[in-house]
From TrEMBL, chain A:
Residues 197-350 form the Glycosyl transferase family domain. SUPFAM superfamilies: UDP-Glycosyltransferase/glycogen phosphorylase (SSF53756). Residues 15-185 form the Glycosyltransferase subfamily 4-like N-terminal domain. This is Glycosyl transferase group 1. GO terms for molecular function: glycosyltransferase activity. Keywords: Transferase. It comes from Methanosuratincola subterraneus. InterPro entries: Glyco_trans_1 (IPR001296), Glyco_trans_4-like_N (IPR028098), Glycosyltransferase_grp1 (IPR050194).
Length: 388, 209
């Protein structure tokens, strides 16, 4: 089975969960015998063509043209991707991720008459809550178009399935839920780290953007007396958050590390008593699985994929999304009750084992086979006599 | 030159079919281009099998004055500016062009008009090896006088990309030919002056050089 995966992010160019998903999925699909070619982006600092972990990687550089904004930058990238794809031979199936590569996926689908599979990781409406300008409306409509054109749509949680169904009008029977996985190497590398844990240290790991809810943790910290908070990550909200910590009188207890490398992150994880994921919008939340596998108790907001991964009181605690008061209560409860912490950690470790990139790849491969079965039984394909 | 391109150029010499791609054709009139094509295409159709892929309110296939018309509706409505809109429109035009090519079972010569339908031509050339002709009536430089914004620069760069990918660029005046040579670095041998159907057919035949 020859698969063309089109993605705007792939190592070494990683922005968020999408890139990690595509990277791990591609490697595991290749290990199962699928012939995977990844068509992605380069800014000139990575190879235009290489083979890594059994995956063929082809990159195009969009900086041969100028663009007035991000939308047209993405469109230019997609145009060059279509031209590059033409030289890569024929494929059984095209798989694109989010609106960012919808343009090239739809174009190739119609020219090649090959089935298109789309993973919709998140939506513009979900991220923004409201579509307030033409760029946001354009992205939203591209998501609709992608869901319309795709043979099957993959979402990483039931929450996202419902969102794609309700906000993009995609028929529910066209959507498959395939969960993300996590990298167990992190847990193995850290098996000796438990002993270093410091008392009453609350950790946040993520981009410092509104939808991740870091401000809720700073506010919760001001409601608690004796705990310190480490905020790992960077983003547009950082100056605001630092100001908020000063204003609330907790700047001596809240540390901002900025972006850190994996090794540093691991040592920070070792210090943490609890990991908090206070997201207001979270399609899945890979970071929660990493913390669970590392033996760190977790507190999550009751939204998105987090709500499906965690059962309150069994493998983590949940709080009402958006409420710093409820978050503060959950933090106090976990920090004050050693027995609860031990119980949650034990259950969380076994819950985390239910998720793996191998399972993600198995289920995706099964979906590919189903799509190709349907395609082969269908008339929509190039004529046998076609000459090109 | 790739094998499939060479193979197809040989086929073009037999002039099996020509596919024009435009963002306007009567009754959808935006500017002068629609009237220009309304006069030209029926004349071309008397000489070679002629298809037109054009923006429409709905998808559909009709035939007028010997021209087989594939209409393609816009899939999205909102775009932050004309450059973003044209990229999306060209994927819709490509849907119509792909339907036409798959119906034919073979690849025609593709003729696009200005940058607004040029991107679809670039796609078809890349994936089907179709010989590509682009008519240039105006450019961002002639319209705006100067590239005074990033949007203008972005449009200019797309124009340059489409013109460079074309096997033949067709103009209606010696002044435009000079403009393209001077501002886009195009080789004069790739630019043909064609003011009517006969001259255009002659230019098509000259593609192989």
């Amino acid at each position: 089975m020859r698969i063309l995966t089109i993605t705007w992010e792939y190592p070494p160019h990683i922005v968020g969960g999408l890139g990690r998903h595509v990277h791990n999925l591609s490697i595991h699909l290749a290990s199962k015998g699928a012939d995977v070619t990844v068509l992605s982006f380069t800014d000139g600092t990575s190879e235009r063509h290489e083979r890594a972990d059994g995956v063929e990687i082809v990159r195009v550089n969009p900086y041969v043209m100028r663009y007035p904004d991000f939308v047209s930058w993405i469109e230019g990238l997609n145009m060059l991707m279509v031209e590059r794809a033409a030289d890569l031979g024929s494929f059984d199936l095209i798989h694109v991720h989010d609106w960012l590569t919808a343009y090239s996926g739809i174009a190739l689908k119609h020219m090649w008459r090959r089935p298109l599979v789309a993973t919709i990781h998140a939506t513009e409406l979900g991220r923004r809550k409201v579509l307030s300008n033409d760029s946001e409306r354009h992205i939203h409509e591209m998501e609709w178009w992608l869901a319309y054109e795709a043979w099957k749509v993959i979402c990483c949680s039931k929450y996202m399935m419902n969102e794609v169904h309700s906000s993009l009008g995609c028929p529910i029977d066209k959507i498959s839920v395939i969960h993300n996985g996590y990298d167990p190497k992190l847990a193995r590398a850290n098996s000796a780290g438990m002993s270093k844990r410091k008392a009453r240290t609350v950790l946040f790991v993520g981009r410092l953007v509104y939808e991740k809810g870091p401000h809720l943790l700073v506010e919760a910290a001001s409601l608690l007396k004796d705990c310190r908070v480490i905020i790992v990550g960077d983003g547009a909200m950082r100056p605001y958050l630092e100001g908020l910590a000063r204003k609330l009188g907790v700047s001596d207890r809240v540390t901002f590390t900025g972006h850190v490398d994996d090794e540093t992150l691991l040592s920070i994880y070792e210090e943490a008593s609890v990991l908090v994921i206070p997201s207001l919008y979270e399609p899945f939340g890979i970071v929660v699985l990493e913390a669970m596998s590392l033996g760190i108790p977790v507190i999550v907001s009751n939204t998105g994929g987090l709500d499906e991964i965690i059962t309150d009181g069994r493998d983590g605690l949940k709080f009402q999304s958006g409420s710093p008061e409820e978050l503060a209560k959950a933090i106090a409860r976990i920090l004050d009750d050693e027995g609860l912490r031990a119980r949650l950690v034990e259950n969380a470790k076994s819950r985390a084992k239910e998720f793996s990139w191998k399972t993600t790849a198995d289920q995706t491969l099964k979906l590919y086979k189903k799509v190709l079965e349907e395609y082969n039984a269908n008339d929509w394909k190039p004529k046998a006599s076609a000459r090109w | 030159m790739r094998d499939k391109e060479r193979l197809h150029l040989a086929r073009v010499m037999k002039m099996r079919a020509v596919m024009h791609i435009s963002w306007e054709y009567p009754p959808w009139v935006v500017g002068g281009l629609s009237q220009e094509l309304k006069s030209l295409l029926p004349e071309i159709a008397k000489r070679v099998r002629t298809m037109l892929v054009v923006r429409g309110d709905t998808d559909g296939v009709t035939e007028e004055e010997g021209v087989r018309i594939f209409k393609s509706a816009s899939s999205i409505r909102s775009s932050p500016h004309i450059l973003a809109y044209i990229h999306a429109l060209n994927i819709d035009l490509l849907r119509g062009a792909s339907a036409a090519i798959h119906e034919e079972g073979s690849v025609p010569l593709v003729h696009t008009h200005d940058w607004v339908s040029g991107i679809a031509g670039v796609y078809i050339k890349a994936c089907f090896g179709a010989p590509l002709v682009t008519s240039v009536y105006t450019t961002e430089l002639t319209r705006s006088k100067a590239l005074g914004s990033l949007l203008s620069m972005g449009i200019f760069d797309i124009e340059r990309h489409c013109f460079n990918r074309s096997d033949l660029v067709v103009v209606k005046s010696p002044e435009m030919k000079e403009h393209l040579k001077e501002n886009f670095g195009l080789d004069g041998g790739k630019i043909a002056l064609a003011r009517n159907a006969d001259e255009l057919m002659e230019a098509y035949r000259g593609i192989q050089g």
